[in-house]
TrEMBL record:
Protein's gene: trmD
Name assigned to this protein: tRNA (guanine-N(1)-)-methyltransferase
Lineage: Bacteria, Pseudomonadati, Bacteroidota, Sphingobacteriia, Sphingobacteriales
Keyword Protease set for record: no
CDD domains named among the record's database cross-references: TrmD-like
HAMAP family: TrmD
Protein's job: Specifically methylates guanosine-37 in various tRNAs.
PANTHER family: TRNA (GUANINE-N(1)-)-METHYLTRANSFERASE
Residues the entry annotates as binding S-adenosyl-L-methionine: 112, 132-137
Gene3D superfamilies named among the record's database cross-references: 3.40.1280.10, tRNA(m1g37)methyltransferase, domain 2
Cell cycle in keyword set: no
Sorted UniProt keywords: Cytoplasm, Methyltransferase, S-adenosyl-L-methionine, Transferase, tRNA processing
Listed Pfam families: tRNA_m1G_MT
Entry similarity comment: Belongs to the RNA methyltransferase TrmD family.
EC number(s) on file: 2.1.1.228
């Protein structure tokens, strides 16, 4: 799967993909993540990518031409299944959306800034608008990194047995049960006896019980259906 991310802050997106599972997915050739600097596609000498809003008001609006030139250049190289715009007024990302997107081929992600982007970019190019939650961030870069991480770890071959997505919170519709490792006694705080018992069946039942209790307490909405 290939991601082309278009941003005014390419430096901000160098490190998030250079570690751990995302790095391994790229080394293995399962995911390709390419960051493009929007300014490189500006049409003027000042390399500007925004302008004053028609109709007045505060804040600048990102112009259509730089995005259009970058997207058109990419589309000449290959076909894209989705052009995603990261925006707080998009559809909220969840695990089922990440699952769906992990089945796609090539995807372009647009990161917005300032007050927003010219509506015509959304009308002409964007196939999907995605938010990562009900709060406002300064730009779409961190949300884009979150989206790519959530998707890439679900592509077959990226995770091994040890890092399996199958036991993730949400994957089974429940939050995870509590986890413990050595020491069994930390300053009097004991690991639950059952986990030391070696009874696989009892341990699995205990974990399921804990997951249910935690979900009921913290996220009852997940149990509704
Ligand atoms: Cl996708 N962008 C911005 N700027 N803020 C957000 C967001 C996206 N999702 C939640 N807050």
């Amino acid at each position: 799967m290939r991601f082309d991310i278009i941003t005014v802050l390419p430096d901000l997106l160098q490190s998030p993909f250079a570690h751990s599972i995302l790095q391994r997915a790229q080394t293995k050739g399962i995911a390709e993540i390419v960051v493009h600097s929007l300014r490189d596609y500006s049409t003027n000498k000042q390399r500007s990518v925004d302008d004053y809003p028609y109709g007045g008001g505060s804040g600048m609006v990102m112009s259509i031409e730089p995005f259009a030139r970058c997207i058109d250049a990419l589309k000449e190289q290959r076909t894209y299944d989705e052009i995603i715009f990261m925006t707080p007024d998009g559809v909220t990302l969840n695990q089922s959306m990440a699952n769906e997107l992990s089945g796609k081929g090539n995807v372009i992600i647009l990161c917005g800034h300032y007050k927003g982007i010219d509506q015509r970019i959304r009308d002409i190019y964007v196939t999907r608008e995605v938010s990562i939650g009900d709060y406002v961030l300064s730009g779409g870069e961190l949300p884009a990194a979150v989206l790519v991480d959530a998707i890439v770890r679900l592509i077959p071959g990226v995770l091994n047995d040890e890092t399996s997505a199958l036991s993730d919170s949400f994957q089974g519709g429940l939050l995870d049960a509590p986890l413990y490792t050595r020491p069994a006694d930390y300053k009097g705080h004991q690991v639950p006896e059952i986990l030391l018992s070696g009874h696989e069946l009892k341990i699995n039942n205990w974990r399921h019980e804990q997951a249910l209790a935690r979900t009921l307490k913290r996220r009852p909405d997940l149990l509704e259906d």
